[in-house]
Automatic annotation (TrEMBL):
<dbReference type="InterPro" id="IPR002509">
    <property type="entry name" value="NODB_dom"/>
</dbReference>
<dbReference type="InterPro" id="IPR017625">
    <property type="entry name" value="PuuE"/>
</dbReference>
<comment type="function">
    <text>Is involved in generating a small heat-stable compound (Nod), an acylated oligomer of N-acetylglucosamine, that stimulates mitosis in various plant protoplasts.</text>
</comment>
<feature type="domain" description="NodB homology">
    <location>
        <begin position="67"/>
        <end position="285"/>
    </location>
</feature>
<dbReference type="Pfam" id="PF09349">
    <property type="entry name" value="OHCU_decarbox"/>
</dbReference>
<dbReference type="InterPro" id="IPR036778">
    <property type="entry name" value="OHCU_decarboxylase_sf"/>
</dbReference>
<protein>
    <recommendedName>
        <fullName>Chitooligosaccharide deacetylase</fullName>
    </recommendedName>
</protein>
<dbReference type="InterPro" id="IPR017580">
    <property type="entry name" value="OHCU_decarboxylase-1"/>
</dbReference>
<dbReference type="InterPro" id="IPR011330">
    <property type="entry name" value="Glyco_hydro/deAcase_b/a-brl"/>
</dbReference>
<dbReference type="InterPro" id="IPR018020">
    <property type="entry name" value="OHCU_decarboxylase"/>
</dbReference>
<comment type="similarity">
    <text>Belongs to the polysaccharide deacetylase family.</text>
</comment>
<keyword id="KW-0659">Purine metabolism</keyword>
<dbReference type="Pfam" id="PF01522">
    <property type="entry name" value="Polysacc_deac_1"/>
</dbReference>
Length: 471
């Protein structure tokens, strides 16, 4: 099994964004322009729109226009847009427009205002409709048509993409279309990242549905502008503090003309804009500027190999000796579920360790017996594996005095006679003195206690070996 979801991401130590000017946070405003691109039988759709409007319990009306819903979308174009346009132009803050292609074609004055303000206009798809049930062929055609109409409307091909009501195939299909500096149809991180599809890296700039004004019209959302301001402020304060501590992040804010463009809601947004302008080291870019910055600061670097994507033979060749002379553990791990979380040292050790723990006591005992004696005959004859040779040398076990060698030999003999396998310890965690001390302590354990202790040390050795070859 290969589990495709990436639950690891940047991990516990994300890259330093290194935002311009040493900014502690990048705050990015997105204005979704959907008015005129929503579901409507006038647009050839089967029913009226019912999504993200101030009609409680709205539902699509098959073969009918919904006058109230239409007028709410029209409010966004007629009034809400201009209120937001004034806010951001007067504050001299850049905005990224997510423009639905068919909506842009019905908004010549608004489009001119966006361009006069120097705002980035990214593609928000061909129409503001649901894509989850579209076939890949139909969605591919709509992506191409969105690009074509966008270019006609704006004079330039879009460099950013966000579908929103996307399908499982959307990100792959947009990646295949090519030519995009970024895609934003994910919500999975506070930083951009590279996603590889069919061998080609695509930059992903995650978006947000939490710091999004859509929550004014969804369950468990914002009741008023003050609640919206407080949520944005708390989000900003958290991210700003993380940036001050050395881990700068990105804050996306999603807006809609017909939602936060309403006066009572708008005041919360304005209050937030005023709030962040009181801080130093805040970068307010477009998404395209973020993409360009990230591509320069953190260009894609192809790994030498990706464990979860290796063929079985290569996987076993690389990792079959991680558990000493026990390639069957790697074989079983490859045959099990592997995912991006298993492509790090900790993640792959977890997959291998799981198979070791699932094994029978007899199988695990065989793994213990496969380990060499510390400073034993194999070491003297230089017949250890490369990993064992390096490990024993790291603790000075390859340069013992005669007295030390005699002591190790005696302990090894007594230990094996008692437990039936050699003494095992992660020597990279220890010194010669601490190894001898552990040897003398553990030799007094019961058989069950020492079997458990030895298995734990085998797992620790596996992790240390993997850390030498994986991030």
């Amino acid at each position: 099994m290969r589990y495709p979801r990436d639950m690891h991401g940047h991990g516990p130590t994300p890259p330093n964004a290194n935002w311009p000017g040493g900014a502690h946070v990048a705050v990015q405003f997105v204005l979704n322009y959907e008015e005129g691109g929503e579901n409507n039988i006038l647009h050839g759709d089967a029913a009226s729109e019912a999504f993200l409007v101030d009609v409680v319990g709205a539902a699509p009306w098959p073969d009918k226009r919904h006058w109230n819903v239409e007028s709410m979308y029209e409010y966004g174009a007629r009034a809400g847009f201009w209120r937001l346009h004034r806010l951001f132009t007067e504050a001299a803050l850049p905005v990224t427009i997510y423009g639905v292609a068919t909506a842009l074609m019905r908004a010549p004055t608004q489009l001119a205002a966006m361009q006069d303000a120097g705002w980035e206009i990214a593609s928000h798809g061909y129409k503001w409709v649901e894509h989850k049930d579209m076939t890949p062929e139909v969605e591919r055609q709509q992506i191409a048509e969105a690009i074509r109409l966008h270019t006609i409307a704006t004079g330039e091909r879009p460099l950013g993409w966000y579908t929103g009501r996307c399908s499982l195939n959307t990100v792959d299909l947009v990646s295949e279309a090519g030519g995009f500096a970024y895609i934003s149809d994910t919500y999975d991180d506070d930083l951009p990242y590279w996603r590889v599809h069919q061998g080609n890296p695509q930059l992903i700039i995650p978006y947000t549905l939490s710091a999004n004004d859509m929550r004014f019209v969804t369950a468990s959302g914002f009741d008023n502008g003050e609640e919206y301001f407080q949520f944005l402020k708390d989000s900003f304060d958290c991210l700003y503090a993380e940036g001050q501590a050395g881990s700068p992040k990105m804050m996306s804010i999603g807006l809609h003309c017909r939602l936060v463009g309403q006066p009572g809601r708008f005041q919360g947004l304005k209050k937030f804009v005023d709030y962040i302008k009181s801080f130093d080291k805040v970068w307010v870019p477009t998404r395209l500027e973020i993409a360009q910055h990230w591509a320069k600061e953190h260009p894609y670097q192809a790994p030498e190999f990706i464990p979860s994507q290796l063929p079985k033979a290569e996987f076993v060749e690389k990792f079959g000796s991680i558990f000493e002379h026990s390639p069957w553990i790697a074989e079983r791990a490859w045959e099990g579920e592997l995912a991006p979380v298993n492509d790090t040292a900790i993640g792959l050790q977890f997959a291998l360790r799981t198979q070791f723990r699932l094994a029978t006591d007899e199988e695990r005992l065989a793994v213990l017996r496969a380990h060499p004696d510390l400073a034993g005959k194999l070491a003297a004859a230089k017949r250890l594996t490369a990993a064992s040779t390096e490990e024993q040398a790291s603790a000075g076990l390859d340069a013992l005095t005669d007295a030390e060698r005699e002591k190790f030999t005696a302990l090894n003999k007594t230990y094996v006679e008692k437990f039936g396998f050699p003494f095992i310890i992660a020597v990279k965690d220890n010194t010669k003195a601490s190894i001898l001390a552990a040897f003398e302590t553990r030799i007094t354990n019961s058989a069950a206690e020492e079997f458990k202790a030895a298995c734990a040390q085998v797992e620790r050795i596996a992790l240390l070996r993997l850390k030498a070859i994986l991030p």
